[in-house]
Amino acid sequence: MPEGKIIKALSGFYYVLYDDRFIQCRGRGVFRKNKITPLVGDEVVFQAENDQEGYILKVKERKNELQRPPIANVDQAILVFSAVEPDFSPALLDRFLVLVEFNQIEPLICITKMDLAEDEQKERISTYAKDYMTAGYEVILTSSETEAGIDQLHPHLENKISVFAGQSGVGKSSLLNVLSPNLDLKTNNISTHLGRGRHTTRHVELMKIGNGLVADTPGFSSLEFTNIEAEELTHCFPELLQASEQCKFRGCLHLKEPKCAVKAKVETGEIPAYRYEHYVDFLQEIKDRKPRY
User: Fold this and answer.
1) Does domain 66-216 correspond to CATH entry 3.40.50.2000?
2) What does the alpha-carbon distance between residue 112 and residue 285 come to, in Å, rounded to a whole number?
3) Domain 230-288, classified CATH 3.30.2310.20, yes or no
4) Beta-sheet strands, E only, within 19-119
């Protein structure tokens, strides 16, 4: 049986890439019974009735999957945040980073609209960028208008499935249009009345850029830690995880425990206070989560 990759899912149809052509497939009826939902990015076994239509018979094992956006087998997440309009939010970025780290997806931080930032804002962004790079993250500062930083971004897309994710209105589609002008993705400016961008991306689709595949995903601004347990949260903050090896107690949550290496590094400034504060906020959120039965 032939095998391919789902590139787009729309209205109950799955578009499978096979030998440089697309086969429009439906899922087997048994999928619904077994609660299997094929996702964009899935490697699948299918049966073709002709050159253009077929049925998906089997979804192969995934290395990871995301619920929002619904996509599987992602190699990296390009987390797109704007310097201004909307203003850069380290709290929201940390929320994205936690979810990406938890799903064992390689994150890359991309801060856009640097051409719109005033000197003071640029200085602030530069400080944040240094903090995240010190924590072990790759950070690229870009502008879709001037194309600054685009050359740095291109190599990271090669031979990978990448998700472009971030808050609405930060310029994900504009950035993708610069990376690959033939995409001609629709973009909308920020609504001045609502203070946020309109959702211009309606479905998840993998698009070819160079030798890589990229998903432009619907923008969203609230993400919940549905599956993360309190003791797992430290693993989603690389600098906290590294420091925690020196904590006196195994399983230290870095709150009120004595001889906590994480809190010591926060006090000396080796770990930025805002990163620790976000960790504490997220930990409380996880603890307050209603139990699932």
Assistant:
1) no
2) 29
3) no
4) 21-27, 43-48, 53-59, 65-66, 71-72, 76-82, 106-112
Do the Cβ atoms of 52 and 24 come closer than 8 Å? yes
How far is Cα of residue 119 from the mean position of the Cα atoms in its chain?
A: 28
**Segments in 103-219 forming alpha helices (H):** 119-134, 150-157, 172-179
Residues 239, 101 contacting (CB under 8 angstroms): no
Query: What span, in angstroms and rounded, lies between the C-alpha atoms of 110 and 112?
Result: 6
CB atoms within 10 A of CB 283: 19
What lies within 8 Å, CB to CB, of 231 at 6+ separation is: 251, 253
Residue 138 and residue 152: Cα distance in Å, rounded? 11
Q: 3-61 belongs to which CATH class?
A: mainly beta
pLDDT tens, the chain, 293 aa long: 899 999 999 988 999 999 989 999 999 888 888 888 999 999 999 999 888 899 999 999 999 988 777 889 999 999 999 999 999 999 999 999 999 999 899 999 999 999 999 999 999 999 999 999 999 999 999 999 999 999 999 999 999 999 988 887 888 889 999 999 887 766 654 333 333 344 444 578 899 999 999 986 655 544 789 889 999 999 999 999 999 999 999 999 999 999 999 999 999 999 999 999 999 999 999 999 877 65
Q: Which two tokens stand for residue 196?
A: 């946020």
Amino acid at 74: V
Question: Is residue 98 a contact partner of residue 236, using CB atoms and an 8 Å limit?
Answer: yes
Q: What are the extents of the domains in the chain? A: 3-61, 66-216, 230-288
